[in-house]
């Protein structure tokens, strides 16, 4: 009764905005498309669309069908792609979602040797999933998720591949630069620069400032690491970043890392994947290479 073409029609009508445009994308005539959906509505006993003037609006049934289409169709497309690769003795593509701004520099150190070792695998990094990649992984839009904050759900697997320390980065001539570590109350006079992320996802807040009931003098957002560290180097504020990243930039900028609290803030980078992909050789090879490369970062 319900077939793949019905899901594709509902999805494309919503994307394209009209039956005509959807028919063009799906390479069918508009009359065939309309007939197919009308027959489905009769079989199901419910309308998928209602017409508002010249525009089609999804009914409650249609909205549910669209949600099913958005969830199911990527699975089917990936399955077809993988089966074709198996049939041709090929591998395919590895789609990586980033949920960690500073992890991009770390990822580059892994991607370069991986491309050399696996010439028949294409790598695509999707940064638009920053700070929201779990849904993309569950919906088969990506194959690996790079994150410092794994969320364990049935069907997913997260492996720690890199240990690091989150530190405060200050200008070399900053009054905190020579400190062995800083305490939370010392941030009340500082301008904290961070990526545009919800506060509960910032380690310096949830593991350092908020437990002490402290907020910085001011908080400002900057999207790029380069500009952020230029601002820190010029004395415009301080930031919290991985120690290894700060030490790399310290070779060309007058900045230094300072421990956050006497114990510091230890962190790990995780690679998340679907359990169903546990035997995909080129995916597991990336995880292993990421773990090996991290020993020399």
Automatic annotation (TrEMBL):
<dbReference type="InterPro" id="IPR000847">
    <property type="entry name" value="LysR_HTH_N"/>
</dbReference>
<dbReference type="GO" id="GO:0005737">
    <property type="term" value="C:cytoplasm"/>
</dbReference>
<keyword id="KW-0678">Repressor</keyword>
<feature type="domain" description="HTH lysR-type">
    <location>
        <begin position="1"/>
        <end position="59"/>
    </location>
</feature>
<dbReference type="InterPro" id="IPR036390">
    <property type="entry name" value="WH_DNA-bd_sf"/>
</dbReference>
<comment type="similarity">
    <text>Belongs to the LysR transcriptional regulatory family.</text>
</comment>
<dbReference type="GO" id="GO:0000976">
    <property type="term" value="F:transcription cis-regulatory region binding"/>
</dbReference>
<dbReference type="InterPro" id="IPR037406">
    <property type="entry name" value="MetR_PBP2"/>
</dbReference>
<dbReference type="GO" id="GO:0009086">
    <property type="term" value="P:methionine biosynthetic process"/>
</dbReference>
<keyword id="KW-0010">Activator</keyword>
<dbReference type="Pfam" id="PF03466">
    <property type="entry name" value="LysR_substrate"/>
</dbReference>
<keyword id="KW-0028">Amino-acid biosynthesis</keyword>
<keyword id="KW-0963">Cytoplasm</keyword>
<keyword id="KW-0486">Methionine biosynthesis</keyword>
<dbReference type="InterPro" id="IPR005119">
    <property type="entry name" value="LysR_subst-bd"/>
</dbReference>
<keyword id="KW-0238">DNA-binding</keyword>
<protein>
    <recommendedName>
        <fullName>HTH-type transcriptional regulator MetR</fullName>
    </recommendedName>
</protein>
<keyword id="KW-0805">Transcription regulation</keyword>
<dbReference type="InterPro" id="IPR036388">
    <property type="entry name" value="WH-like_DNA-bd_sf"/>
</dbReference>
<dbReference type="Pfam" id="PF00126">
    <property type="entry name" value="HTH_1"/>
</dbReference>
<dbReference type="GO" id="GO:0003700">
    <property type="term" value="F:DNA-binding transcription factor activity"/>
</dbReference>
<keyword id="KW-0804">Transcription</keyword>
């Amino acid at each position: 009764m319900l077939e793949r073409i019905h899901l594709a029609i509902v999805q494309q009508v919503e994307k394209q905005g009209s039956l005509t445009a959807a028919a063009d994308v799906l390479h069918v005539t508009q009359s065939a498309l309309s007939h197919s959906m009308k027959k489905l509505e009769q079989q199901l006993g419910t309308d998928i669309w209602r017409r508002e003037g010249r525009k089609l609006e999804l009914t409650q049934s249609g909205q549910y069908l669209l949600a099913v289409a958005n969830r199911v169709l990527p699975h089917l497309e990936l399955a077809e792609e993988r089966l074709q690769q198996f049939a041709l003795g090929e591998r395919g593509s590895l789609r990586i979602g980033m949920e960690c701004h500073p992890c991009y520099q770390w990822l580059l150190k892994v991607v370069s040797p991986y491309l050399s070792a696996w010439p028949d695998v294409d790598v695509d990094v999707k940064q638009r999933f920053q700070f929201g990649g779990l849904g993309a992984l569950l919906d088969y839009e990506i194959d690996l998720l790079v994150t410092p904050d794994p969320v364990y759900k049935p069907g997913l697997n997260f492996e720690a591949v890199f240990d690091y320390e989150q530190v405060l980065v200050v200008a070399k001539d900053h009054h905190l630069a020579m400190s062995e570590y800083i305490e939370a109350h010392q941030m009340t006079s500082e301008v904290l620069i961070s990526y545009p992320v919800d506060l509960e996802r910032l380690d310096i807040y949830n593991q350092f400032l908020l437990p002490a009931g402290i907020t910085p003098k001011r908080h400002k957002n900057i999207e790029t690491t380069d500009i952020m560290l230029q601002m820190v180097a010029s004395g415009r504020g301080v930031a919290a970043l991985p120690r290894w990243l700060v030490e790399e930039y310290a070779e060309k900028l007058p900045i230094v890392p300072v421990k956050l609290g006497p114990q510091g803030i230890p962190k790990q980078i995780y690679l998340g994947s679907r359990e169903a992909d546990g035997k995909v050789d080129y995916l597991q090879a990336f995880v292993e290479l990421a773990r090996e490369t991290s020993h020399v970062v």
